[in-house]
Amino acid sequence: MEYLIIIIFLLACLILLATASFRLWHRDRNKIKQLSTDLSTLRKIKTQITMQNDELIEELESLKRTLQNSVEALKNRDRKITFLNKEIDELKKYPESLKENINTIEDKQISLVNLEITRPIKKKLPYEISGRKIMTVKQLAKKLDIVEDTVYVWVKNNKLPCEKSKNGRLKFIKDNINDWLMKINKGEYSVRKTI
C-alpha cells in the first residue's frame, strides 16, 4: 500500500505539474499572442512614424526652399527699393537743378537781352535816307544796311528815335531818322552794330 500512496502521490504531483504547466503554457501562449499583436502594432506605428517622418522631411525641405525663395525675393525687393530710393533722391535733386538751370537760362537770356554783343560799324551810315516818310524795322534795317536785331537793341537802349503804332509795332519817321543820322555823322552819338 505504501506503493500505492506513493504512486497516487506521484500521479497527483504529475497532474498538478501538468495542470500548472498547461496554465503556464496557456498564459505564455496568450502573452505570446499579445506580444505578437503588440509587435505588429509597433511595426505599423513604426511604418506610420517613418512615413510621417518622410513627409515631415519633405515638408521641411519644401519650406526650406520656399524660405530661400522668399529670402531671395526680399533681397531683390530690397535691391529694387534701394535703387528706387536712389532714383527718388535723384528726382528730388532734379527740381532743384532744374530751378538752377532755369535761373541760369533766364539769367543768360536777360544778359543776352541786356548785353550788346557789338562791333564798330565799318562803313559810315548815310547822311540821309530817302523814300517813305514812315518805315518799319525791316525797312529801316535795309536802308541802313544793318540787321534787324541791331535796330531793336538801339531802340531798347534809346539810341534810335522811334514811335509805337496803335498795334504796338515800332515805326520810324523819316525826318527823325535823318536828324539822328546827322548827329551820328557829326560825332554827337556813337552807335555800335550788333553782331
Features:
single chain; about 200 residues; mainly alpha; Multidrug-efflux Transporter Regulator, Chain: A, Domain 2; 2 domains; two-stranded antiparallel ribbon; 5 strands
Kindly describe this structure:
The chain is mostly helical and 195 residues long. The chain has two domains: 36-115; 117-194, Multidrug-efflux Transporter Regulator, Chain: A, Domain 2. Helix content is 73%, strand content 7%. The protein has four helices and five strands, in the order αββααββαβ. The strands form two sheets. It has a three-stranded antiparallel sheet with strand order 2-4-3. A two-stranded antiparallel sheet has the order 1-5. Mean pLDDT is 78; it is low at 111-122.
Could you give a short description of this structure?
The chain is 73% helix and 7% strand.
Distance between the termini: 167 Å
**Total number of strands:** 5
What coarse outline follows from CA principal-axis ratios? Answer: rod-shaped
What average pLDDT do the residues reach?
78
Radius of gyration: 60 Å
SS element count, helices: 4
Parts with pLDDT < 50 across at least 5 consecutive residues? 111-122
SSE order and pairing:
Elements: H1 2-114, E1 118-120, E2 134-135, H2 137-144, H3 148-156, E3 163-164, E4 170-173, H4 174-186, E5 192-194
Antiparallel strand pairs: 1-5, 2-4, 3-4
Helix pairs in contact: 2-3
